[in-house]
Amino acid sequence: MRIFALLDREQKQAVSLLSIGTFLEYFDLMLYVHMAVLLNELFFPKTDPHTASLLAAFAFCSTYIFRPIGALIFGFIGDNVGRKVTVILTIMFMSLSCVFMANLPTYAQIGIAASWIVTICRIVQGMSAMGELTGAQLYLSETIQAPAKYSAVALLAFATAIGGGASLAMASLVLYFGFSWRIIFGVGAVIALVGTAARTFLRETPDFISAKQEVAANSSPNIHEKVHYKISLSLFSLDCMWPLCFYLSYMHCGTVLKDSFSYGTEQIIHQNFIVSMVQIIACLLFVFLSYRIYPLKILKIKLFISAIIIIGYPYWLNNLQSDFHVLLLQSCIIFFAADASPATSIFYKYFPVLKRFTYISFTHALSRAVIYVITSFSLVYITKYLGSWGMLIIAVPVFVGYIFGLLHFEKLEKENSLLNKESLDFH
């Protein structure tokens, strides 16, 4: 890729190590998400279909609902100790949780204790994944200059997509060949430990080192700078879009395949694997485009197309003729999902360096927790009483918020460009 020609040896090493680590982290994280239909039967008591739906929603949300707490913990470490320490700790915690899950007795063996332990493991995985992605994105944002950093940071989204796709591939192999699901979590633990060791070779980011030196010398006039509420709210609004698109494409459409086309667990996982390949292609495409096209312009295009697809989602569901049509719907949602990538590094620069990790990770975590809880639990009842069109009760406010966030950051970018131009003219 051409962007690597603009990076020095140390920057290339950082991109490689962080991308590989992010892949490993999301491979481990998404294993349970995509195998939930199978694993929930092993770790939770058997109940009626309605209660089972609620338990599945709880198992899914447990990965995200405690993320804000993890964001505050890892945010404090990232802003006070360093970015490097955080990205090492997060992948280490992911490895430990995989070790526990690989050796955890089932509900039939130890009863309700199995349900509690697996839920705790999912919480730990969710919290560590939160610090992992934010830490990796900040590390590259603070190490590489624009425009190369747009593509470099977008590569992390590509790495998460590959991690999710690899977890689906492994889940599909387990079900097809009848392997033990415990083997996958064991493999996940081992590769995460390798990633932990590899990241010890990273150096701390220049921005963080500079900010800490200014604090030590008491020479930083902006050390007590506050984060404007509109910036945090704008980032939160932008971050809410991806979890909605992810849930509709993978989870809700998976339920549609099960209820309307009698798909089994293996068939759902196989179709979701195809969707994950579409997601990987989309991420790679936007990595390339972000080097040549201003990232905020890319987000506008994605938003326009995504709005047409999501707003029309109930109509498409009500007129499905085959499982192939479901696959097309899933692929369109995930390909044009309006998220923060590839403009992530643009948004992050508007947060003070020594508050950046905490604010960004907490905002990111809160958006995931709120949207996944709303979609997972609300759709169970909304679709029951209002049908597919009830989904718009969730989708429309999310789209409005995304537009607000995008326009606010675009305004900040224009103001920043004018200030830079005036500074150059002055000199």
Please characterize this protein's 3D structure.
By secondary structure, the protein is an all-alpha fold. It has one domain (10-203, 228-426): Growth Hormone, Chain: A (Up-down Bundle). It is 82% helix and 0% strand. It is built from 19 helices and no strands. It has helices at 9-34, 36-43, 49-65, 67-80, 83-102, 107-110, 112-141, 148-177, 181-199, 206-216, 229-239, 241-261, 265-292, 295-311, 313-318, 323-335, 344-348, 353-386, 392-426.
Brief rundown of the structure:
The chain has a single domain (10-203, 228-426), classed as Growth Hormone, Chain: A. Helix content is 82%, strand content 0%. The protein has 19 helices and no strands.
